[in-house]
Amino acid sequence: xxxxxxxxxxxxxxxxxxxxxxxxxxxxxxxxxxxxxxxxxxxxxxxxxxxxxxxxxxxxxxxxxxxxxxxxxxxxxxxxxxxxxxxxxxxxxxxxxxxxxxxxxxxxxxxxxxxxxxxxxxxxxxxxxxxxxxxxxxxxxxxxxxxxxxxxxxxxxxxxxxxxxxxxxxxxxxxxxxxxxxxxxxxxxxxxxxxxxxxxxxxxxxxxxxxxxxxxxxxxxxxxxxxxxxxxxxxxxxxxxxxxxxxxxxxxxxxxxxxxxxxxxxxxxxxxxxxxxxxxxxxxxxxxxxxxxxxxxxxxxxxxxxxxxxxxxxxxxxxxxxxxxxxxxxxxxxxxxxxxxxxxxxxxxxxxxxxxxxxxxxxxxxxxxxxxxxxxxxxxxxxxxxxxxxxxxxxxxxxxxxxxxxxxxxxxxxxxxxxxxxxxxxxxxxxxxxxxxxxxxxxxxxxxxxxxxxxxxxxxxxxxxxxxxxxxxxxxxxxxxxxxxxxxxxxxxxxxxxxxxxxxxxxxxxxxxxxxxxxxxxxxxxxxxxxxxxxxxxxxxxxxxxxxxxxxxxxxxxxxxxxxxxxxxxxxxxxxxxxxxxxxxxxxxxxxxxxxxxxxxxxxxxxxxxxxxxxxxxxxxxxxxxxxxxxxxxxxxxxxxxxxxxxxxxxxxxxxxxxxxxxxxxxxxxxxxxxxxxxxxxxxxxxxxxxxxxxxxxxxxxxxxxxxxxxxxxxxxxxxxxxxxxxxxxxxxxxxxxxxxxxxxxxxxxxxxxxxxxxxxxxxxx
Length: 766
Ligand code: PMP
Known about the structure:
Layout: H1 3-14, E1 18-24, E2 30-36, E3 41-48, H2 51-67, E4 78-79, E5 88-92, E6 95-103, E7 108-109, H3 117-134, H4 140-143, H5 167-183, E8 193-196, E9 205-207, E10 213-215, E11 222-225, H6 226-239, H7 244-258, H8 263-290, H9 301-312, H10 316-326, H11 337-347, E12 362-366, E13 369-372, E14 377-380, H12 393-405, H13 415-425, E15 434-438, H14 441-455, E16 460-464, H15 473-477, H16 480-483, E17 495-498, H17 515-524, E18 530-535, E19 538-539, E20 545-546, H18 551-561, E21 565-569, H19 584-587, E22 594-597, E23 608-612, H20 614-621, H21 634-649, H22 652-673, E24 677-683, E25 686-691, H23 701-713, E26 716-717, E27 719-721, E28 727-730, H24 738-755
Parallel strand pairs: 14-26, 16-17, 16-18, 18-21, 21-22
Antiparallel strand pairs: 1-2, 2-3, 3-6, 4-6, 5-6, 7-9, 8-11, 9-10, 12-13, 13-14, 15-23, 19-20, 22-23, 24-25, 25-28, 27-28
Helix pairs in contact: 3-6, 3-7, 5-8, 5-9, 6-7, 6-8, 7-10, 8-9, 8-10, 12-21, 13-21, 14-20, 17-18, 22-24
The structure holds 4'-deoxy-4'-aminopyridoxal-5'-phosphate.
């Protein structure tokens, strides 16, 4: 606004003659610092006119007048115009505006001063005192205010989600929105409410020369849950800090000294803080689109994202306990693991193994992180089933939406079955064009063998040593990994076993040159009356053993020449995990006749599938009806579609390639430093390293188990497998990051450094 015009207004409306004026930052209104000729300072605020704006400004003025009863210097005071009004409506630049004047508070924004414990303490005290003063304040306009900046109405921000460009960022916001629905909404009506300031950020709190704090900008006032005022304050105090929870704790402790918070209120803070951050990033994303010049709207964005990423890997139980400790409440203790195991074994067979010497009780999860009941966060470098990440909001949504609508079976017509089948088949070579849905990888193996037997007139099934294909009777019979064990059922006559081709443990003495060919020629000798040959492209249970080049090519040719069917078990290797390849068979440049899918196909929802050719399917169709009660049901199809969409949208296959290459490179560096790593192998995010006795190929099972268990102690999850259980397997959700790789590598080096301390070189100072 021009100076002349400003002079005129202020003189006419407030009898103030201006000495100087300065434009200040503002979110969606204009603010000026006015200095009068008599050297008094004021804040002039100009808003676009709307009836809604006017009533909120009147409510704000009313509240500030109410507060002025307490300590005048703590809050701005509305200034009446000559017309006896706290909000004037004027014509300015050809449009209607609302004008108001406030007293000016001296001080520096706390955003500009050093963040100290003392400051945090003062913030807690300031906000608690404000809450105390507002305790009995009532205002109809504020009571009925329903808008997106109030944490209780987090859901109103859903409309801004499309403005968050990066799908991997968007999923974090969606995750916290769902956590809020689950954990806060059911309790929200039982929480105490009050009029709250609702915007206690570092640019709304001032510190004066006497180190006293005051607070400005009451434009976000609303009636909400009192704990939301605390959550907003903790959010701003912590997202500026290197140790966010420490800073938040100081604020909380000091607030709680004045207003005691309940157990329930404290238990919700984790979700409320994340909700506040979601509101912040949603609105920043939106305002970036509609008003790219408004830098003020974006000041908090970076910090909010950083804090959200911190919270996504931090356990809610951990945060709750930190806050409980801060206010002097006892930390929540969870049930003892051993008691839980005892209980479990009363009803569940001991045959179901439990990982680790010190088993873990898991309570919740987020993407590549899992949280135990004690508040520990684990980096999941092991679980391949949640391929798009644990608790992915889109998967949750797909399950929940479809189950509210329809879940039935393939004897009725619903479009999801066609939509999903078409989408999935698009990922395969053209000749693989028929699909059967079941509920697990085991069922898929079982069905695949049925299909092969019905197509081929032969009788035998050829399998690889150490291969695993499932837990059904047939699955066990074709899984050397199971049937060959001491307590295993032994080899059935129809099963033909051939050696697992391994580059590291090359059965054929001499060079590794043409090793695939050597193993394939050796195996081909056993191809006689073979109906099906089944193998994984990289043997998971065999210890992440990558089949050598040309092996499958030669075998497939031989099998087909003898009228057998080639089956690729992609239960572990499928869906982009290998980075460069969407399916493992692509790595070997072959096209199978049947493909088995499981595990990650449903990100944890039980889906299995068999994909085959029309010819094989036709042979099967000569037999009896095939029916699976749950296979291909509408919920499973909805989940399957979501998994494929997420892999695409979040670019997860490419991430598996990039992060996988980096991971393998880093593991190879560790191998160079430590003589116990005999081999590093795998592809994409399906890797393994073999633990051996120093500089040999002799398996060191004991050390491998120690490493696995110590990684667990370091909060990193990996597995172990292979015929000697000496191969450490790592196959994380595909959202795994380079930073996550560094975490694994650092822990691994720390552990190995303990077993293989370097000789300390004594420097000769003489
Ligand atoms: N095939 C392979 C290669 C597997 O790894 C597994 C499971 N570990 C299966 C089949 C069986 O799948 P499910 O456990 O879902 O029945």
